Structures are given as C-alpha cells and as structure tokens.
C-alpha cells in the first residue's frame, strides 16, 4: 500500500541516534564511536540546533565551508528558484546560465593570469583535476615530465591522486602501495612563538629553497602543488608569502606548473579573497571548493591559464582532457555559488572579515603568554592555538578527544586537530559570539594549569 506525501509517519527525533548507528558510516569516525554522533533538527546563523533543544555555536564553519551562516535565506531562495527551472543537465554538450555567470565572476576576482574554469564536485576532485591537467599538459607536447613536488604535512584530499601528494601517515597507510611517488620537501613553517629558534628556522628555509632548486634543475618536475600560506589539516601550520614567492619564482624559471590548492584558503579566509593574492607570483592552476557555495551544496572548480589549455587545443581527439563528473556544473550548486559571491563581495561582508581578523589578533595578544599555550598563530580569520601537553604536537595527540568533548559540553563546536584548537567561523558571527568562544578557550586553559 502506497503512502501519500500528506500521510507520512511522524519521525521520532529521539530515536535518530539509534537509527543512525544501524544505517550510517560516518567520515573520520571510528565505528565504535558512532554512539557519540549528535543528532540535529536544523541550523540557523552560527548555531546548530540539537534534538534536545540546545544550540551549538559553530566555530569552524562546519568543516571550513560555511561563510554566511546556516540556512541563509538569500542563498536558499536562489536555489529554490533555480530548482523550478533547471535542476541538472549533462555538462558535456550543454551549458546553462548559472555555470557561465559563475565562471565569468570567478575569473573577475581570481588572479589575472587565470582564464578558464573547469567544474567538478568537491575539493579532492578539484586537486585531482589540477594534477591531471598538469601531467597531460606535458604528455600532449610529447615531453616526459612525470614527477611532482609537494610539501611534507600536506593534505589535498582523500582520493588516490590527492592522497599521493599528501602526508604519508596513519590515515593513508593501507593505501601506500598504490600511491605514486612524490618529491616531498619540508614545509617552511613560521617559527613558533615560544621556540624563538630563528637560526633553526632560517636553516630550514634555506634547506627548502636548496632542495627545491635541485629538484627543479633536474628538468623532470611537471608540477608543484601546495596549500598557500596555511596547511589546514596539518594543524593550521602557516608560512610567509615571501618564502612561498621564492619557491614559485624558482618553479617559473624552470617551467614547472604551480598548482595552488585553495580549497580551504579561498574566499576570504586569509584576509584576501584568495591566499594567492598575498604572493606576487601567481599559480598556473587554482583549485577551489568548500566556501565556493557558501557551504550549501557540493561544487569544485579547477581554474587555469591559457597556457595550461594550449596543448589541448587540437583536433587530435587523443589530446582531449577526458575527465568529468555526473554532477559537473550542477545548476543548483552554481546558483548557490553565485549567491554566495553576492554576499561575499558586499561591503558588509568584507568589513566583517576585517573585524574578525582584528578581533582574533586582539585575543591572540591577550592569550599568547598563558602557560598552557605552546604557540598561537593567525592568518586572516584563521586563528590556531597550540596547547602545551606532555606529548608532541600531533593530530593524534590524546588531548584531542577531551578538548572536543569539553567545548561540545559548553555548546561550542570546535574540532581540534590533536592539541591544536583553531577558529574558522562564518563571517556573520558577532563580536559577542566571538567573546563567548574566546572566554571558553581561556576557561579551559586555566583549568589545564590548575590540574597540573
């Protein structure tokens, strides 16, 4: 017997957790921890609404994607309008206004050397596309360049190509036999506040430049892929635009394609629209996702220069870029991205980014000398605080679970990476809400000192 939409059974919200455990496999979550999953009824602004009536302040933009707050009315209305017109169509052989408009608007704000937009569906595939573009760029010209440079500690996604150019660690151990070889060089991280070992820092930077030059001079490097200014999953490690600019300069001198993974850093997170805007020398390929749609729908972009496309401009079918996804340039996602850009480029949003950046800087100065703080660092609206523990700084530092639980008990969503707490809030967050987060962080630090 069929059930009409008007007579659907009422959902028992109290039973969500049990039903979830029976049916769903969550990402980055041990199956034995599925009982810890928090059921939600909805979200609005900076808050997640729990089934028990509590509201949780989202201090990480729901895994770095949310720019303008949850259930944003403006974006939602644009999506609803588009859903009544064209929800999806194959993008091989067809096009539509939302995709064309979005491509044009992105090219207006991306570095001026970027001229083409290729759509995919998430950040990992955006980086896969970037690497495939780069390798085939050389293949189409009959040039053998098959090696790629990446930073130690990198994270570019969880698909196989993205894993190959990322840090080889516990997350990737089962797949190591299947990953291609990569030339990893140290990440030229800014010196920590409390180590003050500037001599060691200078030595590392000189070593990075020397190793990069040596690899570049081999003539075998096809591309250099990097997270500009901030290595997100490595614990929000940060480097200066100056050292990155030097590496990009060496790459350009040796005809190495530069791939900027701006999946996390794009759309205002570093204080500029793109982290690449901080550097004088621009990449040849830029990968975007996460904040692209304001955190509403999945969408990926790989943008490139005319030069990257040049070897593909041929009637030789075998030199076509054979890559695509079923939901490439989905109209709903594209219209969401256009709506998000409307909000992002507004005066009020740009002023909010400056306000958050200044607020973080003030809190960083206030808390930097706290005995429980090992290091504190900031780029734009990204603030990271490294907590002093008996174990080394690591994603697997055991303090992570207690930190996560502490903040969730106090109705704040922070997802520490080991002993590193970071903030990456929606841009609509108020000064009062920021103070709530700051105060709870300080309360935790004080408790840690008291319990020593």
UniProtKB/TrEMBL annotation:
Its cofactor is pyridoxal 5'-phosphate. InterPro entries: Aminotrans_3 (IPR005814), Aminotrans_3_PPA_site (IPR049704), BioA (IPR005815), PyrdxlP-dep_Trfase (IPR015424), PyrdxlP-dep_Trfase_major (IPR015421), PyrdxlP-dep_Trfase_small (IPR015422). GO terms for molecular function: adenosylmethionine-8-amino-7-oxononanoate transaminase activity. Pyridoxal 5'-phosphate binds at residues 123-124, 261, 325-326. Substrate binds at residues 63, 155, 290, 324, 415. Its EC number is 2.6.1.62. Keywords: Aminotransferase, Biotin biosynthesis, Cytoplasm, Pyridoxal phosphate, S-adenosyl-L-methionine, Transferase. The modification N6-(pyridoxal phosphate)lysine is found at residue 290. It is found in: Cytoplasm. SUPFAM superfamilies: PLP-dependent transferases (SSF53383). The keyword Cytoplasm applies. PROSITE patterns: AA_TRANSFER_CLASS_3. Its main location: cytoplasm. Gene3D superfamilies: Aspartate Aminotransferase, domain 1 (3.90.1150.10), Type I PLP-dependent aspartate aminotransferase-like (Major domain) (3.40.640.10). The keyword Flavoprotein does not apply. Pathway: Cofactor biosynthesis; biotin biosynthesis; 7,8-diaminononanoate from 8-amino-7-oxononanoate (SAM route): step 1/1. Belongs to the class-III pyridoxal-phosphate-dependent aminotransferase family. BioA subfamily. HAMAP family: BioA. Catalyzes the transfer of the alpha-amino group from S-adenosyl-L-methionine (SAM) to 7-keto-8-aminopelargonic acid (KAPA) to form 7,8-diaminopelargonic acid (DAPA). It is the only aminotransferase known to utilize SAM as an amino donor. This is Adenosylmethionine-8-amino-7-oxononanoate aminotransferase.
């Amino acid at each position: 017997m069929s059930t009409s939409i008007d007579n659907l059974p009422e959902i028992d919200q109290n039973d969500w957790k049990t039903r979830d455990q029976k049916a769903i496999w969550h990402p980055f979550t041990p199956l034995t921890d599925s009982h810890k999953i928090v059921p939600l009824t909805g979200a609005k602004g900076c808050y997640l609404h729990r089934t028990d009536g509590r509201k949780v302040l989202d201090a990480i933009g729901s895994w770095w994607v949310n720019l303008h707050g949850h259930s944003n009315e403006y974006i939602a209305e644009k999506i609803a309008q588009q859903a009544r017109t064209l929800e999806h169509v194959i993008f091989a052989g067809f096009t539509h206004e939302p995709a064309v408009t979005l491509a044009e608007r992105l090219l207006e704000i991306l570095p001026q050397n970027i001229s083409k937009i290729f759509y995919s569906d998430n950040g990992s595939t955006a980086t896969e596309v970037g690497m495939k573009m780069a390798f085939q760029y050389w293949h189409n010209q009959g040039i053998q360049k098959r090696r790629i440079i990446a930073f130690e500690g990198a994270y570019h996604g969880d698909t196989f190509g993205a894993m190959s150019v990322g840090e080889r660690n516990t997350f990737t151990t089962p797949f190591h036999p299947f990953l291609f070889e990569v030339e990893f060089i140290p990440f030229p991280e800014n010196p920590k506040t409390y180590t003050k070992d500037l001599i060691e820092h200078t030595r590392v930077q000189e070593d990075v430049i020397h190793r990069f030059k040596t690899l570049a001079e081999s003539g075998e490097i096809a591309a250099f892929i990097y997270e500009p200014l901030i290595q997100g999953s490595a614990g929000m490690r940060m480097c200066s635009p100056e050292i990155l600019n030097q590496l990009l300069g060496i790459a350009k001198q040796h005809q190495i394609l530069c791939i900027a993974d701006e999946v996390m850093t794009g759309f205002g997170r570093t204080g500029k629209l793109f982290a690449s805007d901080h550097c004088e020398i621009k990449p040849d390929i830029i990968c975007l996702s996460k904040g692209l749609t304001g955190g509403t729908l999945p969408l990926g972009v790989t943008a490139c220069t005319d030069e990257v496309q040049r070897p593909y401009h041929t009637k030789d079918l075998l030199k076509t870029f054979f890559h695509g996804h079923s939901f490439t340039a989905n109209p709903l996602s594209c219209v969401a991205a256009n709506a998000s850009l409307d909000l992002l480029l507004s005066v009020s949003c740009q002023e909010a980014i400056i306000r958050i950046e200044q607020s973080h800087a003030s809190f960083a100065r206030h808390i930097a000398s706290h005995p429980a703080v090992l290091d504190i660092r900031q780029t734009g609206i990204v603030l990271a605080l490294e907590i002093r523990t008996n174990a080394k700084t690591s994603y697997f530092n055991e303090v992570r679970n207690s930190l996560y639980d502490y903040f969730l008990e106090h109705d704040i969503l922070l997802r520490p990476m080991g002993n590193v707490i970071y903030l990456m809030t929606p841009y609509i967050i108020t000064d009062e809400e920021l103070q709530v987060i700051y105060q709870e962080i300080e309360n935790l630090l004080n408790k840690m000192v008291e319990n020593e």
